[in-house]
Design goal:
Order of helices and strands: HEHHHEEHHEHHEEHHH
Number of helices: 11
CATH architecture: Up-down Bundle
Shape: elongated
Radius of gyration: 38 Å
Mean pLDDT: 83
Low-confidence stretches: 42-51
CATH superfamily: Outer membrane efflux proteins (OEP)
Distance between the termini: 33 Å
Structural class: alpha+beta
Number of domains: 1
Largest sheet: 4 strands, antiparallel
Length: 490
């Protein structure tokens, strides 16, 4: 009978828990199922077996200076350092959350000398008007049995925050790598343009000298001289612009490394080459897209939002906490008499709380959690779609630039042959030297176009690697699909 009497309050509380219901509050969205995304017909034209990039993807460009700069950029970037600090912050918060899963113990001791009042209302009876010791010493224990797994769910949310911040750190790292790669490709192009621009200036100067010599012999006009001078001035301006672009590109690289402009002086001309080709499978599984850090971060966000719904559900159930305390209490006698056996005190028991009426507060909290889940699912879908678009755009642009590069290679060969034939004609006396110089300038122009297209090939190659997430790994890059999907509660 005594046992039944003790269980009666708990039974009543469980029955009363039905007073507030979560019925009808569920998410309106669901995560996409793991499937494969079909690439467009244009992208499939360049597909063979997948040759996925590695984590240090920039090494495929075979430039030792670039390898060193990438390492410096990642280690010195303020953005990466900030993201790593956020990981440490999330880890410390997770440790605080995990503490709720374990019992806590506190000790408290108090030694006071007290004068007791004689007032009828406030007075302590026979101690009134006396002075005595008022000492206590207690050891208390608190434990939340977590019968609805609220604390465990909060711990999982805290862990997901660590994972999300880790993914964001990878995003920051990838952004730095991408920006550095673009600046380095631009610097490489500028150095190639510098050499061609200098040759163009020399050729225009030579052309002006020839026309002036012809003018003295009455074989040309002042108009031709002025035209040649204009062409030379334009070429010299382009040469100075290229030099300026080189300095700016170097400064951009120095800034990405957190260095001052003086660091730019130590940069050597790049030597970028590619020996292998990036290819894609005709179908890209969603799990491979999951290697992109933005997709990983988005998945952890959905995971966290799903757990927040579960946490909101626990507010509808009774909450039980256990506590116990043991110690000594004394208000008379000597200072050490508090530790005698007859001064021993203890208490133990549960503390129970139950939501019965709260004017819709916890239903509102659950509704907020489900709406947040819908938002994160929408963001996840958007991230997947944008990822596929970036991969497809980069692949198509790379294919187009490779085709243009092949076409320009033929044009360069033809313009070079024209230059050689013009020189042969001059040497046998069929023409003067101006056609030779014009043919050389046309050849230089085709080389410039080719260098610009080659820079595009390098850039689109890097863009494709970035779109793939900067290299695939074999480690678990996100929560499992089942952990993202909402399961309706009974």
């Amino acid at each position: 009978m005594k046992t039944l009497f003790l269980l009666f309050p708990y039974t009543m509380l469980l029955l009363l828990s039905a007073c507030i219901s979560s019925e009808g509050i569920v998410p309106q969205s669901d995560v996409p199922v793991d499937n494969t995304f079909q690439l467009s017909e244009h992208v499939q034209e360049i597909q063979e077996d997948a040759a996925w990039p590695t984590d240090q993807w920039w090494q495929c460009f075979q430039d030792e200076q670039l390898n060193q700069l990438m390492q410096l950029a990642v280690s010195q970037s303020p953005s990466v350092q900030e993201s790593q600090a956020r990981i440490r912050l999330a880890t410390s918060l997770a440790a605080q959350t995990d503490a709720a899963l374990s019992p806590t113990m506190d000790a408290e001791a108090q030694i006071n000398r007290k004068r007791w009042p004689t007032d009828y209302f406030y007075g302590p009876g026979e101690l009134g008007g006396t002075t005595s010791w008022n000492n206590t010493g207690l050891l208390s224990l608190h434990y939340d049995p977590d019968i609805w797994n609220k604390n465990s769910l909060q711990s999982e949310v805290a862990l997901s925050e660590i994972k999300k911040q880790t993914a964001k750190s990878q995003i920051a790292k990838l952004n730095i790598e991408s920006a550095l790669m673009s600046s380095y490709i631009q610097l490489s192009l500028n150095h190639d343009e510098l050499e061609l621009a200098q040759q163009a200036v020399n050729t225009y100067q030579e052309k002006l000298d020839v026309i002036k010599a012809q003018l003295k012999m009455g074989l040309n006009t002042e108009v031709a001289v002025h035209q040649a001078e204009t062409q030379l001035a334009d070429a010299e301006a382009k040469l100075e612009a290229v030099k300026d672009h080189i300095v700016i590109a170097k400064h951009a690289i120095a800034a990405l490394l957190g260095e001052g402009p003086a660091f730019a002086d130590s940069l050597k001309p790049p030597h970028l080459t590619i020996t292998d080709e990036v290819s894609l499978p005709s179908h890209i599984p969603a799990e491979l897209l999951g290697h992109r850090p933005d997709v990983v971060a988005s998945r952890w966000l959905v995971f966290s939002a799903n757990k927040h719904i579960d946490i909101a559900h626990t507010a509808f159930y009774p909450n039980i906490n256990l506590s116990a305390a043991i110690g000594f209490m004394a208000v008379n006698g000597s200072v050490l008499s508090v530790f005698s056996h007859d001064k021993l005190t203890y208490d133990a028991g549960p503390a129970i709380s139950l939501p019965i009426f709260d004017a819709g507060r916890i239903r509102g909290e659950l509704s907020e959690a489900t709406a947040s889940y819908d938002m994160t699912v929408a963001l996840y879908k958007k991230t997947l779609t944008e990822a596929m678009q970036q991969i497809a755009d980069s692949a198509v642009s790379l294919k187009s630039s490779l085709t243009q590069s092949a076409t320009l290679a033929s044009a360069i060969k033809a313009s070079h042959q024209a230059y050689l034939h013009a020189n042969d004609a001059y040497e046998v006396g069929l023409t003067d030297y101006l056609p030779v110089l014009d043919a050389k300038l046309a050849w230089l122009q085709q080389q410039l176009f080719s260098q610009q297209i080659n820079a595009q090939v390098l850039q689109y190659r890097a863009d494709l690697i970035i779109a793939l997430g900067g290299g695939l790994t074999t480690e678990d890059d996100g929560p499992k699909q089942a952990a993202l999907r909402y399961q309706e509660k009974p």
